Amino acid sequence: MKVKILKVATEEVVASFIRKANAAEMPSIQQNWRFNFNKELKKLKNATGYLLVTEDTPDTIEGCMIFQLKDMKEPYMAFVEVAPHNKKNKKRYDFVAGCLIAYAYQLSLIEGWEHFKGYLQFDVMEQDKEDEIKLMSIYSSKYHAKRIGNTTTMVIVDDDGDALIAEYLK
């Protein structure tokens, strides 16, 4: 899937793509990522790993995501993360997370079954409750996610998902 991300230093749009990846290609904590995507992908049933890379530097991972189909019908974004060099004030590229989340929603439209079609779930779990609340707020404001009750589970559905696709994938 072709996408466009923003090079922060020059504010130029950079041609990029999201592609499937096997566990050996997925990043890990040893590479300064927050999660061991390589190990998590092996553990999860019905899960697929995806990498976002630029066309100019396809060997440099800008972000990654694991999409899972729980019970073979429920779309679930198990993990998503931007590369360490794309975090905070010194980031190289922007829109990486948006592209990956929008792509996960698009996968929910394709792979979701019955009433789960177009219903992307994910959980926000942080060690610090304050960080959890901040992150849920970001998912709500930037990516149109809604929190389910008083849980850590969030969903992206219907028009909110369509807005994500329009903003990040078209």
General description of the model:
There is one protein chain. The protein has 170 residues and is α+β, with helices and mostly antiparallel strands. 29% of the residues lie in helices and 34% in strands. It is built from four helices and nine strands, in the order E-E-H-E-E-E-E-H-E-H-E-E-H. The protein has helices spanning 37-43, 96-111, 129-143, 158-168, and strands at 2-7, 12-21, 47-54, 61-70, 74-82, 93-94, 119-123, 146-147, 153-157. A hairpin with a 4-residue loop joins strand 1 (2-7) and strand 2. Helix 2 crosses helix 4 (158-168). It is globular, with a radius of gyration of 15 Å.
Radius of gyration: 15 Å
Distance between the termini: 10 Å
Largest sheet, in brief, is: 6 strands, antiparallel
Strand content: 25-35%
- Helix- and strand-based class? alpha+beta
Helical segment tally? 4
Low-confidence segments, ≥5 residues, pLDDT <50?
none
Shape annotation: globular
- List the helices and strands in order: EEHEEEEHEHEEH
Q: Total strand count, please?
A: 9
User: How confident is the prediction overall: mean pLDDT?
Assistant: 96
Widest sheet: strand ordering: 5-4-3-2-1-6
Give the helix level as a range of percent: 25-40%
Question: What key attributes describe this structure?
Answer:
4 helices; globular; alpha+beta; 6-stranded antiparallel β-sheet
Secondary structure layout plus pairing:
Elements: E1 2-7, E2 12-21, H1 37-43, E3 47-54, E4 61-70, E5 74-82, E6 93-94, H2 96-111, E7 119-123, H3 129-143, E8 146-147, E9 153-157, H4 158-168
